[in-house]
Design a protein that fits this description.
Distance between the termini: 68 Å
Helix content: over 70%
Structural class: mainly alpha
Radius of gyration: 22 Å
Number of helices: 9
Strand order of the largest sheet: 1-2
Largest sheet: 2 strands, antiparallel
Number of domains: 1
């Protein structure tokens, strides 16, 4: 094969290669969007009062949210599938999985009077919508500025502990206001401070959460203690960071 034939062969193969890259990149957008479909399945489980199954679906959505960015970077999604905004798609799916569906799960749980659950849910979806529009939700060292609207975890713990209605309402109001605060909350994967301990406790918390789901939210005392204490650790890290900033 002479040089002109090689060039013609290379030119014929290049579009195919680019097409393959585009299909692969677009598949990442589909994978991210699947989080919305998973959220819908969680919603159907909540409507049927299958709360353990509802949180199991949300857990799967968390897995999708945790790994889609890796695929997006590896397969150059912004280069080969620029027609869709991965950032916007991610925000849409996150709002559904972290906020809207958990608010419906809370409403369908029936742990408090319906009017109170509806009020709590309205506070959650309204305040989180404003938070998701924030341009300053993360610091330069990857902490969240303000409560990061992980209402899926808040509702999960509310069903695990079933606190008194007044206390639960104050917690919802306080966290909603905290979304607009300057208090920092840890990103358990990206923040460097105490990262090995944080990742270890995150793994333990996740296992305890899986056990709670398996028990259909009728959680044994040991699992409750694990979920509560480790949750408190994640909250306390923001205070520790503030104290370090004062010292430095």
């Amino acid at each position: 094969m002479d040089s002109s034939e090689k060039h013609a062969s290379h030119s014929a193969q290049k579009p195919l290669g680019n097409l393959a890259h585009r299909y692969r990149a677009f598949s990442v957008h589909i994978f991210t969007a699947s989080g919305a479909a998973i959220a819908f399945l969680s919603l159907t489980a909540a409507i049927q009062h299958q709360m353990g199954l509802a949180f199991a679906w949300l857990g799967l959505a968390l897995v999708v949210d945790g790994i889609d960015g890796t695929f997006a970077r590896a397969w150059a999604v912004k280069t080969y599938a620029p027609q869709l905004s991965g950032d916007v798609l991610d925000l849409v799916v996150d709002y559904v999985t972290y906020v809207f569906v958990p608010a419906v799960i809370l409403l369908m749980s029936g742990i408090y009077p319906h009017w109170l659950l509806a009020t709590q849910g309205a506070i959650i979806v309204l305040s989180a919508a404003l938070y998701f529009a924030s341009n300053t939700m993360k610091t330069n060292d990857y902490w969240f500025r303000g409560f990061p609207a992980v209402w899926n975890l808040v509702v999960f713990l509310m069903l695990v502990f079933n606190p008194p209605a007044g206390l639960a309402t104050l917690a919802v109001i306080g966290l909603a206001l905290a979304q607009a605060s300057n208090f920092t909350f840890v990103h358990p994967v990206r923040v460097k401070m105490l990262r090995p301990l944080t990742l270890t406790l995150l793994a333990v918390w996740s296992l305890a959460g899986i056990l709670a789901i398996y028990e259909d939210m009728k959680v044994d005392p040991i699992t409750q203690w694990l979920l509560g204490l480790i949750g408190f650790y994640f909250l306390a890290l923001g205070t520790l960071r503030r104290e370090q900033d004062k010292v430095s």
